[in-house]
Amino acid sequence: MYAVSGNLLNVNLSERTLRKEKLPEEAYRNYLGGYGLGVALLMDRMDPGTDPLGPENILGFATGYLTGTGAFIASRYMVFSKSPSTKGFGDANCGGYFGKKMKQAGFDVLLINGVASAPVYLLVDDGQARLKSADRLWGKDCYETEDLLKRLHGEDCEVACIGPAGEKMSMIAGISTDKGRFAARSGIGAVMGSKKLKAVVLKGTQPIVLSDPGGMKALRKKHRGILKDDFPADLSRYGTPSFYEASLQLGDAPVKNWAGSVEDLPEANRVDAEGILKYQLKRYACSDCPVGCGGLLRVESGPYKTKAEVHKVEYETMVMFGSNLLNNNVESLIRINDLCNRYGMDTIGCGALCSFAVECFQNGLIDRHQTGGLDLRWGDSEAILSLVESIGLAEGIGAVLSRGFEAAIAAFGEQSRPYAIAVRNEALPGHDPRFSVGYALSYYSDPTPARHTQGTTADPVAGYEQPEFGNDQFTGRARYHHDNVNLTHVMNAAGLCLFGYFMLDCHFVPEFLSAADGKSWAMEELHAIGRRIAVLRHLFNLKAGIDFRNHPFPARVLGNPPINQGPNRGVGIDLDTMVREYLEEAGFDLQTARPKTEVLEELGLSKYASSG
User: Fold this and answer.
1) Are 34 and 166 within one domain?
2) What is the pLDDT, as a whole number, of residue 226?
3) Within 10 Å of residue 211's Cβ, how many Cβ atoms?
């Protein structure tokens, strides 16, 4: 097949067996790739009710359909599994070079189940695969692990690995590639750790064959002009830190654990994109990306000196360890980012847990005895750095926090719950629904909660037309939210970077698909694919026993009570109305939240009618 090989590798770690399988073309036509293909495979091959840290849980890696084809900013791969953090469907999305190398190594999908008797890593080399001992790697951080494996297998290999956080099954453990690109969310690294799988190593030079290579090249050239616009130009120069200052002023970036506003931030030494850029050594781009928003930094001296060059601090990290902790020390942000990357932790989750701990300390719910002597104060960058290290090592108070919000609430007392800004144990990212209320519906209703990358009226897909919604307008959003969710699933499953589909009109995606595989594609078909993915992810959670409406949303973020200063002053959010209208638009029963029979029939999913 063009664009994809159809090859899937089944790995059973308990039995140490590896088996190749050919996926039917229909699977790609129905789900494209990535987590779209992933949720279909999990629904067919495992019980969603299984223990997420047990041997029956399947951990999958899958490339996007267009990844590596040269399509506009198509670099992504996805990891999927049942999430130990949310107990529902889990996925994490990552760029870099691993996704393209996976196809060059001969596979579109890796499915891993069982538990190894001792630490191992999986080596995939030009269509052949072996399990090898990882005894020497266990306990190493992500940087050390990648360096050792590249010395062993060559600089041209690609490595996805876990650090100490994954080994200790932290609920914020992610999977690292390129020493700083992360499949970070859903606690997916903990699943890898539970299986004693330290790393996946890819080697190979197999060609990614296109139906129309000249047409693909022409399409890239045709659309390169959009890179001259302000958004991609700023992204190329500064990376995602370019969003930080404007987000603060608009009320998009949370402050002081979501209880404050930009007025609470000290003016002195305010962190900004230019401040980050002063430490940059060079730019970095993911495979086939003309933007190059990444960068490598170094702090040369002082208490936050880095041992080597480290990945640029991203917007989410700046927010969660900056404004949300009232921390204005730019060098501390670089070093904290470095620590999270080394230990293999999601910076959104880690920053949110730190904010939670600081507010608990400030309100007398925990004391210096519980913090190991740390005096947790807003803006104290040294104490925050120490707290991050303890979470990464799962030591002292870090051992409690690394198990996630629910475990921490159990330890600190139920009165700490208002300070836990999370949905189903997953920390909210750095975009405030009080600034754009559509985020609240995404954070709450998506099967992978607390994600700003799963479709919303707050960030419509480029080329999708929707009305201008006021921030006090809760009714009437459902159709547009539904369409954005479905389109976003398509873009993700195709392997496109989020910034790509914020820039490139979605109506051009069928052209890229046709150049890749020689088949005819239409927008109507893509909407159906996205809807099919959305419904299956929802069914997975129902079968796992999760109706999202039975779980709380942090009242503070809904404006209950409303804050009394800043750009979000007085805002309150009617989440119930948005949820009800979205369920109706999606064709889900309002009593059970189950997709109606006619929805399943329309999407070819009737075999799942009894699921849940």
Assistant:
1) yes
2) 87
3) 17
